[in-house]
Each structure stands twice: as C-alpha cells, then as structure tokens.
Amino acid sequence: MKTSFVKYVSDWKLSPMAYWVHIETDSKPWYLSQEFEPPAPKRFGTLGFPQLTVEFNGHSFIFTSKEQLEQFIEIMGRKLLPSSMELSSNRTGFRGPNSHWLSRLPGKTKPWKYREKLVGFCKKLEFPK
C-alpha cells in the first residue's frame, strides 16, 4: 500500500532526519540552536510544524521539512547506497554512524527494487508550504 498524509506536530526536531539535514550555525548545541542551514521549517501558527508521513509497503517514513524529503530521495535513489559511516562523517557533532537515519531504516527498505519504487512514489509528493 502506498499513501502519504500530513499532520501537524509541536516539534520539528523529532523527525529522524532533522539532525542530519539541518545543521546548526550558531554556537549552541543542536537541540538548543535557533539558526540552521538549511533553515528550520516554519511553524504554521497554532497548528505547529507540518509532518509528512509516507507509508509504503508496510513501512513509514517521516519528514518535517522539504529538505529532509529531498535528501531522502537523493540518497535512497542511488543504485548503491552510501555507508552510514560516510554519511555521518559529512556532519560535525557527537552522533556516530549508528544513529544516522539511513542506518536506522529496516533492512527490508534497502534493496534497490524496493527503493526504486519508493523513490518514484516520493518524487510525486510535495511538502506542504
């Protein structure tokens, strides 16, 4: 089954990809930081932050920014996946490769046959503006 839906959450930083995509640019620790590159998602008034959930063949993927979805498509769309060691070394901080979003995905989501279809579905989606 393939579906996607948007709900609103109080904290965009709870997304599994948030730490790896939005890099703090001030001198504060990531969880306290207010300045990021790319910029943090915008709050929709009292609704909160948009969270896009993609459900694809029994697995759920959560995104709280357009940049997270774009990075997911870019990495999962590669025929050969990079190692989480390689990906985690691109980001300064204290978290290691075992906490990278790619290493936390279930093994059944990593074969090329699955990813090819998943990425095709994700490319048709638009993150809420």
Structure, explained:
With 129 residues, the chain is an alpha+beta fold. The protein has one domain (2-123). Helix content is 28%, strand content 19%. It contains 5 helices and 5 strands, in the order βαββββαααα. The protein has helices at 18-21, 66-76, 84-88, 101-104, 112-123, and strands at 2-9, 23-24, 36-37, 49-56, 59-63. Strands 1-4-5 form a 3-stranded antiparallel beta sheet. The chain has a two-stranded antiparallel sheet with strand order 2-3. A hairpin with a 2-residue loop joins strand 4 (49-56) and strand 5. The chain is globular and about 40 Å long. The chain starts with a strand and ends in a 6-residue tail after the last helix. The model has no long low-confidence stretch (mean pLDDT 96).
What's the pLDDT, averaged over the residues?
A: 96
Helix content class: 25-40%
Shape: globular
Q: Strand fraction band?
A: 15-25%
**What gap, in angstroms, lies between the N and C termini?**
26 Å
Over the alpha carbons, how many angstroms does the gyration radius reach? 15 Å
Structural class: alpha+beta
Which runs of at least 5 residues are low in confidence (pLDDT < 50)? none
Strand order of the largest sheet: 1-4-5
Please tell me the total number of domains: 1
Q: How many strand units?
A: 5
> What is the helix tally?
5
Give the H and E element order. EHEEEEHHHH
Describe the sheet with the most strands: 3 strands, antiparallel
